[in-house]
Amino acid sequence: MHRLFLAFFALLSIMTILTPVNAVETPSLEDKTLSPYFFVKSDDPELDQLPLLSTSAEVNIAGVIADVRVTQSYKNEGSRPIEAIYTFPASSRAAVYGMQMTIGERTIIAEIREREQARQEYEEAKQEGKSASLLEQQRPNVFQMNVANIMPGDTIKVELSYTELLVPTDGVYEFVYPTVVGPRYSNLPEESAPESENWIENPYTHSGEQPTYTFDISANLASGIPIQEMTCTSHKVSINYDGPKMGIVKLDESEKFGGNRDFILKYRLSGGRIESGLLLYEGKDENFFLMMVQPPKRVTPENIPPREYIFIVDVSGSMNGFPLDISKKLLRELIGNIRPTDVFNVLLFSSGNAVMSEKSLPATQENINVAIRVIESQQGGGGTELLPALKRALALPRTEGISRSVVIVTDGYVRVEAEAFDLIRENLGKANMFAFGIGSGVNRFIIEGMAHVGMGEPFVITNQSEAPAQADKFRKYIQSPVLTQIEANFGDFEVFDVEPLSIPDVLAERPIIVFGKWKGKSKGEISLKGYTGNEKYKGNLDVRQYAPDETNSALRYLWARHKIQILDDYNNLRPNDERIKEVTELGLKYNLLTQYTSFVAIDTEVRNVDGKQTTVKQVLPLPEGVSDYAIGGGQSKGMGFKRSSAKPHYSGTGIEYAVDGIPSTLVIAESEEIQVIPIEPISLSVTIGQITIGEGITSKAVNNTLEGHLSKIERCYSIALAKQSGLKGKIVFKFIIQSDGKVSDVEAESNELNEDMAKCIIKVIEKIEFAIISGKDIEVSVPITFTF
């Protein structure tokens, strides 16, 4: 067993510390991938590169519905006309239903259009010299604002309105206003990337630098039920009460540059319980309802079967520092409190992945201690290859009679949201999937999306102090089923277009939400039945006690947004023209921003006669606590270890760690012996030189493919470097790309590097597959230089 753990330590040490960190240098055009980059201030005094002056939000919460108006102010302080592009986040549950643009005394109300038509109208107005704004959805939680023909001295305000439903958990309501889009990892070549992904390539300031624009937010809460408590866990605010049911929140002046972390407002209603109820809206053409019912309490631990937990932990570059520190604290809380009857496993991933054991281990104190030590040794580096990690976890052998739960811990800085949803949805029968977001600017879309398709609740930690409480809450949530086999009977209340079609199991104390339309009179009784533990459950709502109210008009937007989200989930799995058409029609009918509909506002006045202008991408701050390692770009520099002056020794008892968590020894498992080598951290570099190649494929295509495997090549180099001090030089690799894209006849030529390292890299190259155009065998020669 000790040898197994030592081999695991060896693999993890090599995988994590040798994975390439993202350097800050700008790559050459030939090598450039579609990645974020660091902002460099231009010396041109005529060009204003920072047109966004401020962003602010006014929030009004009535009951369980939040209505938000966001104002973005742009000013051109240069001497040339500009077009500003600003990428910003919103809640993935937001239903964006309105936009307007104000120039001086003129206000232009935006109109909803099919996406391509809106873009075309905007581009025409831009060329004609008219001021115009365009709002597009890049992800359900990422929007892009384009404002054209901002003339020198102009101030243009763009206001957008959205509404969202607040679903409480354990009696606590939470309103989150995301402030900044975190950098997204991407290995797509810039030249061949689809236009829909171009928003990923955005400038950022360095870690620790404050935003270049100001931030403000205020919130009014009218609960209808006495407020027990209200807190803001993210920013300094003032909270005042106007009676027991009204709360007023204002941002402190000291937080005017606090737009680099999510604004989080939490509140609890009197008694700590959520009252069951029904909201009704009677419109001109359609009527809408929302039903919320409080489920019974959790079952006792004795009712819960033995469980298997697989913890998938993101140790990529964007997790370096604050996010990974929180992850370590979270995992200590989760793994340290697993029941002795459970089994568990740990899988770490960045550009590659490593698993603790090919079969989950009993939750003994010894095994738990080893797992915690391994997690605490991680530093963060490399890309974020989430899909291979998910696939590997699902492929692990499982034991009959044990409920498997997979816990994914990440900041979500990836571009494969749809693919991750697809994988989880297709494997729900194999494992329960739970997502845990870490960081001050989490990609909530993928966290919430993974929870949605996995039939679970999203969890997010934004600071260190939240970790113990959130870990305890999360552990109880995933191990405590509450209500199952739920049936709703609406009786004489004539409902249709009800969502969800069937009510999912409830896993914790939170309300059941059911949307729909109704016709006729608001009458009858709604009954809800199900099972909790060994007992039957029944609840009833008398519809006549709930009168339709004009203040519930947001229900039409919320119902349509929920319907669109479900259709989008299916389209992410299998795009379908009919579903795309249905989403488009819903967006146009209910005036909603969707993947296929956009808002466009165009002024009638021609203000820029020749239409010439400079496009400026508004620089974004890195989310608070996120390090510079989150910014990538296909770089080949990394972190490795070299052998120290101390003598190597052999051991079968364990690994020593430095106080700061950086390993001071590297374990190499060879045959029956475990070699423990004293090492010191160093920076290393692997550089691909001028590629010589036959006809049929370009050297750029080969280079881009090889760039995607640099982490594995670096791993080979660092293992060799740990064994042989001072190792550096160049190897020329020659191989054949066969007509089917596979590689054969790999050879290495060098007088400078050792044979083991060359063999290791040859194995990497042999597994690469290329995209071939000519369909014939092609000879390739690739020089690679290794330095530190």
Kindly describe this structure.
The protein has about 800 residues and is of the alpha+beta class. It is built from 13 helices and 41 strands. A hairpin with a 2-residue loop joins strand 30 and strand 31. The radius of gyration is 28 Å and the shape is globular. About 45% of the residues are buried.
What would the keywords be for this entry?
alpha+beta, eight-stranded antiparallel sheet, Immunoglobulin-like, eight-stranded mixed sheet, 4 domains, single chain, 788 residues, Rossmann fold
Whole-number count of domains: 4
Return Rg in Å.
Answer: 28 Å
Note poorly predicted spans.
1-31, 632-679
Which class of the largest domain in CATH terms? Mainly Beta
- Judged by helices, strands and strand pairing, the structural class is alpha+beta
SS element count, helices: 13
The helical percent reads 10-25%
The best one-word shape is globular
Distance between the termini: 36 Å
The biggest sheet amounts to: 8 strands, mixed
Number of DSSP strand runs: 41
Side-by-side strand order of the widest sheet: 6-5-10-3-2-13-16-15
β-strand percent reads 35-45%
